[in-house]
Design brief:
The protein is mainly beta. It has 6 helices and 40 strands. The chain has one domain: TonB-dependent receptor, beta-barrel domain (Maltoporin, Chain A, Beta Barrel), CATH 2.40.170. The protein has a 22-stranded antiparallel beta barrel. It has a 5-stranded mixed sheet with strand order 3-10-11-7-8. Strand 36 and strand 37 form a beta hairpin. The longest helix is centred in the first third of the chain and has 14 residues.
Length: 688
């Protein structure tokens, strides 16, 4: 099917049928969903920024085992899973900087920085049931969230937002998939605690791709007084997954489920036990105090530790990554007639103490020590933001000053070396203006500067070529958008266009054994259009509960502006890893008797896989369906029984390509047609 025909068949109906996503008010549109982005705490339609809000209803549209499909169902976000447990995430961009993991995206979990001071986020340590909702801020969030060009994600898992009681969930599926969750929420309205344990496992849909994850968490909220609120978070995650490795096109077409085989003197993934073992501990608390009706302060402190073992084809890496940090801010707000003024200022600081040891890999076990390095990483920034509302106008002006200091100590092999690297950025400002065309329709624009120093993993990638001379990325982003209930309270539309000029773009390279290294690649120009729409169905039906149709479309024109590598000139080429067109559409239909259906469709266009644009991952279409029965009895007992399927068209596609893979090793096959079923049973405390 030609893309133009596909787009016509989807866009035209979507302009007539589209709907909203919110947990609380499904009858008035997504304009009413309250978000925290830029510390606004207001309806999403009133915030002058491009924001995707993913609610618990959105997450529950799929199999309840992963957040990947829910994020990919929103415009401007691409989350990849190269094998079960191996996540990559990018917002308005490609995976140039992410051979694996989440980099250049700042993530907060319950007000606590979840991204470590080295710039890496172990998002795969969170289980599906650790997330109630999340917000994706697209474009540089430099004014409040510090260095970064790849956007911000705010994850919420607040114990006080759930009803007290016990809920048990069980999901099973193809490829030996199983996900068990036990949630216990107890306490009073003033003091609430939530304990959650999740065990997930899978045999994997490729050879050598098994996964196991255990997550134990405790969230607590305590209203100490009318002016004081304390929240606490504890999380321990133990994750293991095998890494099957990327395939050449010939291998991918012959048997996409195979693991990377041995070639010549280079062994295969299974031969060396290629895998990841992560153990992460996080403990933190956030305290909010109201001095009076105009002044308040919020302070968050945390400590975290990650232990990582990574046997690969080329070596065996072991890393210990303890780090501590905190964030504190003060907010002033006042009203002068019809004018509202608010001002916020604060600081965030993180200190990491990383040790990395590389050994020879002998059949999946560490052998002779090859290198021993220590990295002390201090990252901090100061921020300030001023908001002014007057009649229909909303002005926001913010800026941050960022600094990162690294001390690198090389112990083995001799000689001993020590070096210091500082990344100092200029002031990173953000200016945004919003105008309300009518009470539920807003037109906004923003200008922001992003600054993103290389992560620790990019300066010293495990077992490959280090490049301490990497420079920080930086660039300017321009946004303009319109969002709101345009023609009807039942129709919500969010359309945004942007232009991002990026200098010193960091790109990934791979060597023959699959090791990654990084270098700066000149400048890029990134232009895009993102559109989303939702339409509520059956608002007054005696048969149907609130239901919706939804659709989104993304267009990206991303190009290297000036990039020469030795004798190769890639200027003007498409950025690898970016699909020019993506489309998502779906229907969420519910009956008042409890039966429901979720149908989701996604189209992803061709994706270039290398700088030369000589290798392409073909476009694909995905269809997912979930059918179930959900009921609450007397407000105390809940049940949800469901079943469904993913990739029902049985497409062959790669979700998580290795960009610029050496020897044409680009492809990590995604699951073929597969099925799932689950049940959730709850006994809740009767509400007063």
């Amino acid at each position: 099917m030609k893309f133009s025909c596909l787009l016509a068949t989807l866009v035209v109906p979507a302009l007539v049928f589209s709907q909203e996503v919110t947990d609380t008010i499904q009858s008035t549109g997504n304009y009413q969903a309250t978000v925290r982005a830029y510390e606004q705490y207001r309806a999403i339609g009133d915030v002058p920024a491009a924001i995707n809000y993913v609610s618990r209803n959105d997450l529950n549209r799929f199999s309840n085992t992963s957040i990947v499909p829910a994020l990919n169902a929103t415009a401007g976000v691409r989350m990849e899973e190269r094998s079960p447990g191996s996540y990559r995430l990018n917002i308005r961009g490609s995976s140039l900087r992410s051979p694996f993991g989440v980099r250049n995206v700042k993530v907060y979990y319950n007000d606590i920085p979840f991204t470590d001071p080295g710039g890496h986020t172990y998002l795969n340590q969170l289980g599906f049931y650790n997330i109630q909702s999340l917000e994706v801020i697209k474009g540089p969030g430099s004014s409040l969230y510090g260095a970064g060009t790849g956007g911000v994600m705010l994850i919420n898992n607040d114990a006080s937002l759930r009803q007290a009681g016990v809920i048990v969930d069980q999901v099973v599926g193809s490829f030996g998939t199983s996900n068990t969750n036990i949630n216990i929420n107890f306490g009073s309205d003033r003091h609430r605690s939530m304990v959650n344990y999740q065990h997930q496992q899978s045999d994997g849909y490729r050879q050598h791709s098994a996964m196991r994850r255990d997550v134990l968490s405790w969230e607590a909220t305590s209203h100490l007084s009318a002016k004081d609120k304390l929240t606490a978070t504890f999380l321990y995650g133990d994750l293991f997954y095998q890494t099957p490795g990327a395939l050449t096109r010939a291998e991918y077409e012959a048997n996409p489920a195979m693991a990377r085989p041995a070639v010549g003197f280079i062994p295969g993934s299974a031969d060396v036990g290629a895998s990841i073992r992560q153990r992460t501990f996080l403990a933190g608390a956030s305290y909010r105090h109201l001095f009076n009706e105009r002044w308040q302060s919020t302070t968050s402190l945390y400590g975290a530790f990650t232990g990582l073992e990574n046997p690969t084809i080329r070596n065996y890496g072991r890393a210990n990554e303890p780090h501590v940090g905190g964030r504190s801010s003060v907010t002033y707000s006042n009203t002068f007639g019809v004018t509202k003024l608010s001002w916020q200022a604060g600081a965030e600081l993180q200190q990491g103490f990383t040790t990395i040891r590389i050994y020879d890999n002998r059949g999946g076990r560490p052998d002779t020590l090859r290198s021993d390095d220590e990295i002390n990483n201090l990252a901090y920034f100061l921020f300030s933001q001023l908001n002014l509302e007057h009649n229909r106008w909303n002005f926001s002006l913010g800026a941050s000053y960022n600094q990162q200091q690294l001390r690198l100590i090389h112990l083995t092999p001799l000689p001993y070396r020590q070096s210091n690297i500082n990344f100092n950025n200029k002031l990173a400002p953000r200016l945004a203006v919003l105008y309300k065309i009518k009470p539920t329709v807003s037109l906004y624009t923003s200008l922001s500067r992003g600054f993103s120093p290389p992560t620790t993993a990019e300066l010293y990638p495990t077992g490959s070529i280090s490049n301490p001379n990497l420079q920080a990325e930086e660039g300017w982003n321009y946004d303009i958008g319109l969002k709101g209930n345009v023609y009807s309270p039942r129709l919500f539309v969010d359309v945004n266009a942007f232009y991002f000029r990026l200098q010193n773009t960091i790109v990934q390279r791979r060597d023959a054994a699959g090791g990654d290294y990084f270098e700066n690649a000149g400048s890029t120009r990134q232009r895009g259009l993102e559109a989303q729409a939702w339409y509520q169905l059956f608002p007054r039906s005696a048969t149907f509960a609130p239901s919706r149709l939804w659709m989104n479309y993304t267009y990206y024109h991303f190009r290297y502006k000036d990039f020469k590598q030795v004798t190769n000139d890639f200027s003007g080429n498409r950025l690898p890893g970016v699909a020019p067109h993506t489309v998502g559409a779906g229907a969420d239909i519910s009956l008042k008797k409890g039966f429901y259906t979720n149908l989701t469709y996604q189209f992803v266009d061709d994706i270039p896989l290398n700088d030369a644009n000589s290798a392409i991952a073909e476009s694909f279409h995905l269809l997912t369906a979930r059918f179930g029965f959900r009921r609450s009895i007397e407000g105390r007992y809940t049940i949800d029984v469901f079943a469904g399927g993913d990739n029902l068209l049985n497409m062959r596609y790669s979700l998580g390509n290795d960009i610029n893979g050496f020897g044409g090793r680009f492809f990590n096959a995604a699951p073929a047609r597969n099925y799932f079923a689950g049940v959730s049973v709850g006994v809740l405390k009767r509400q007063q």
